[in-house]
């Protein structure tokens, strides 16, 4: 009898031990970016980095389960640093500049001109400056799992930002304290907020412009709220250090085997973003749609707005198309292509009188129009006598 009980007890202990050790350690990972796919099926690259670490650690079979809390569902973006230093939060994809109020030195990781491009970022990771920055991170109670640098650009509802004078009078969101000071010095008003709030800030009029990373520009669809965007390009004005960080208290509580698995997973995530960053800046441009980025406002770029209008017309977004075509003609009142497309769009909207107004305006400037468009318009609405 005792032997049977002993056998049952041993079996029960084994079952419970197996169940309990399936994931002996659960780590919480927080970040502010969407955890859902975009229209093209891709995810924000910073979410992907955290997911890669979770997947790699799971494959290593070291009894660690990483639970990801995206879209600021666990902590607000700028409130993640302190919980990491105390061990309340285990892991975060974190723009280091957000913690510059605790460590002013962190502002240097997004200073304009510090990092010139993605290749320079890789070399910069091994620089004396970054060695010192990582020492400050470590001394504060945080460990770097993966390095990551994202290029940054500018966007505005009113004008293109290419020079310091272009921000004068604008209300800007800046990526950090040092950037705030520089923009204020150039005559801009400042509204401080994380990148996850830029869209609403622009939508409600709290902001007229912002600087943010390529990844955030795409993930938060900021392109929907701006008139002009200036992407990083081959030599970006600024780059932002956005590493994957882990609480040192949480890290030190792990076994040596678990620590090695995490560091190895962090390297895999780092290699992934290194391969992806070149495409991020292109996504910045592509996300705006055809011809939405206008790097210089002058008559030559009237065509950019004309093509943008044509793109919107093809998507049946006719009122928006009219708006962009009118902007094209504001830049260059002799743009025959813009007139032809606008007349066609107005025809499709059955705004015949307005279409004839555009015909008359073009003729007054000796602008040649496509005859087939005029013939089609004439069939449904004869040309008014006062327009001939």
Give a topology summary.
Layout: H1 2-20, E1 25-30, H2 45-60, E2 64-69, H3 81-86, E3 91-93, H4 118-124, H5 128-139, E4 142-146, E5 149-156, E6 171-173, H6 177-185, E7 189-190, H7 198-204, E8 209-213, H8 214-219, E9 228-230, E10 238-241, E11 244-247, H9 248-252, H10 256-287, H11 302-314, H12 318-331, H13 336-348, H14 352-364, H15 371-380
Parallel strand pairs: 1-2, 1-3, 6-7, 6-8
Antiparallel strand pairs: 3-11, 4-11, 5-8, 5-9, 5-10
Helix pairs in contact: 2-10, 11-12, 11-13, 12-13, 13-14
Mind explaining what this structure looks like?
- It is a single chain.
- The protein is an alpha/beta fold and 388 residues long.
- It has a domain of 89 residues: Tetratricopeptide repeat domain (Serine Threonine Protein Phosphatase 5, Tetratricopeptide repeat), CATH 1.25.40.10.
- Helix content is 47%, strand content 13%.
- The strands form 2 sheets. Strands 5, 6, 7, 8, 9 and 10 form a 6-stranded mixed beta sheet that branches.
- Helix 2 packs antiparallel against helix 10, helix 11 runs antiparallel to helix 12 and helix 13 runs antiparallel to helix 14.
- The longest helix has 32 residues.
- The radius of gyration is 27 Å and the shape is elongated.
- The N terminus is likely disordered.
Query: What string, H for helix and E for strand, traces the elements in order?
Result: HEHEHEHHEEEHEHEHEEEHHHHHHH
> What's the CATH architecture of the domain at 299-387?
Alpha Horseshoe
Question: What is the level 1 CATH name of the domain at 299-387?
Answer: Mainly Alpha
Beta-strand percentage range = 5-15%
Quickly give the structural class. Answer: alpha/beta
How far apart, in Å, are the first and last alpha carbons? 112 Å
Low-pLDDT sequence parts: 1-5, 7-22, 290-300
CATH topology of the domain at 299-387: Serine Threonine Protein Phosphatase 5, Tetratricopeptide repeat
CATH homologous superfamily designation of the domain at 299-387: Tetratricopeptide repeat domain
Number of strands: 11
What is the rounded Rg?
27 Å
Q: Which of globular, elongated, flat, extended, rod-shaped describes the shape? A: elongated
